[in-house]
Amino acid sequence: MIEHDFDEDFVPIAAELQRLPYLSPSRDFADRVIAGIGRLQSAPAVAPIKASRHLELQQGGQQAVVQRRPVGVVGATGRAVAGVTLIAAAAFMFFEIDVLTAMLSAAATQYAFTIAAVGTQIGALVLGSSTIAYLQAGALQAVVLYITLVVGLFGGYAAIRTAAQIAKRKAA
Amino acid sequence: MVVFAQEGREDAYRELIKRYERPVFSLIYRMVRDKETAEDLAQETFIKVLNNIDRYRPEFKFSSWLFKIANNITIDHLRRRQVDTISIEGSPDAITAERARATAVTVTSGGESPLEELESRELGAEIEKAIAKLRPEYRVCIILRHVEDYSYDEIAEIVKLPLGTVKTYIHRARQELRQYLGDLR
User: Fold this and answer.
1) How is residue B88 annotated by DSSP?
2) Which 31-50 residues of chain A touch chain B by CB within 8 A?
3) Torsion-angle region of residue A140: left (phi > 0), alpha (psi -120 to 50) or beta?
4) Pick from B106, B136, B159: which residue ends a domain?
5) Which residues constitute the domain of residue A78?
6) Tally of domains in chain A
7) Is residue A116 assigned to a domain?
8) E strand intervals along A13-145
9) Is residue B92 domain-shared with residue B154, that is, in the same domain?
10) Which residues in chain A have Cβ-Cβ distances shorter than 8 Å to B123?
11) Residue B138 forms contact with A (CB below 8 Å)
12) ipTM
């Protein structure tokens, strides 16, 4: 209500002016206005699909990674034992290797493989099984080569010691 | 709401239109006395305001800014058309009775008896006619003062006239209304 700043004879007219009703435009007025506005915000952008950790950027990022089955500790140990046994048998067959040296060599080799297998499992926990699976699958040949080198190192060491002992006996 | 509209949100635009369409349309209609023209001018007002809402300065009332643009657009229209003779029964341009009915606005009132409604309607119609006889400059000032309850300063800002001129216009408008509505007193 505004403050009176007019003569008393205008009071009834002022009252009538204040009683004048608001008039309404047609019902589609707002739609017509909106249609004429050029700066309307476009529809909200579709949120980018959150990449699943089971998806990789392959074939449009929509192909699931095939989870590789991690190699178990028992399996790795068994393979190591089998490998050492074969190497020891070959050593006995082709070289006259000292039994004790051969056993020590085999034990050391076996422990090394066991440690490697345990390390693989710990790595799987830390880095994730998928990462280890990738490393295992992707670098399988490198691992085989590494095992060959390790076995060869221990085998060579055992052969040198055996040869040294044989030489000592002959000399004696 | 204005902030949301400045971000370009359609729901904010619609809310602003919903909130102000009736006061703006009423002001414009009482200036031009033609429903279709009033709708076109009101539509032009809202489109202009909402397309330029980034220029709105929050130190002023949004409604004042809106009325200012509505007044500018309406005054420009009246200057172009020179529409000074008006009628509550419909557009002054109406040639036939049907056209006159189509361009007239139905004024409704609520909660009154049929007699009171008739008297109120007649009274309201007399007031509308009296306002229509005023010069457009007087008309907008008297409507903003007595219908929209704006202060003199706000009216001066809206119509972009000196404060003294606004006071003079309103004083003269009251005098003329007294003359036209002598029987009411």
Assistant:
1) T
2) 32-34, 36-41
3) alpha
4) B106
5) 73-171
6) 1
7) yes
8) 55-56, 63-64
9) no
10) 16
11) no
12) 0.70
CATH number of residue B141's parent domain: 1.10.10.10
Check whether residue B62 and residue B98 sit in a common domain: yes
Give the three-class secondary structure for B87. strand
**Alpha helices by DSSP H, chain B:** 2-6, 10-32, 35-51, 62-81, 97-103, 114-133, 136-146, 152-159, 163-180
Dihedrals phi, psi of B87, to nearest 5 degrees: -150, 135
Element counts in chain B: helices (H) and strands (E): 9, 0
- CATH number of B52's domain: 1.10.1740.10
Using CA atoms, how far apart are residues B103 and B88, in angstroms rounded to an integer? Answer: 10
Q: Which two tokens stand for residue B109?
A: 């009132």
Does the model's pTM come out above 0.80?
no
Task: Say how many C-beta atoms besides its own lie within 10 A of residue A82's C-beta.
Answer: 10
How many angstroms separate the Cα of A91 from the Cα of each of A25, A82, A87, A100, A113?
104, 14, 6, 13, 19
Check whether residue B94 and residue B121 sit in a common domain: no
- Count how many domains chain B has: 2
Nearest to B142 by CA among A2, A45, A38: A2
**Each residue's pLDDT tens digit, A62-101:** 444 444 455 567 777 788 888 877 877 776 666 665 666 7
pLDDT digits (tens, 9 = 90+) for B159-175: 999 999 999 999 999 99
Nearest to A28 by CA among B31, B6, B17: B17
Return the bridge partners of B90, or none. B87
B18 vs A contacts (CB less than 8 Å):
30
